[in-house]
Specification:
By secondary structure, the chain is of the alpha+beta class. The chain has one domain (7-68). It is 19% helix and 9% strand. It has one helix at residues 56-68; strands at 26-28, 33-35. A two-stranded antiparallel ribbon has the order 1-2. The termini are far apart.
Amino acid sequence: MYCRNNCIEHKAIRPLNQSRYGIGQKRCQICDIFMHWNGLFCPCCGMRLRMKPRNKKYKAKLLEDKMRY
């Protein structure tokens, strides 16, 4: 698995006052970008996309944001 640079078309812009995962952006670990993509796998390299943060602090913040709305 390697990046073929097809993922640049789906690259997402960083939101100002919201978390990336909270608004539905997903991250590819191989391509190292956040993207707007409806599938589970990266359209470029085929790696499974991450849909939740790994850090405990950001997981709690995401859960708090979901409970608020």
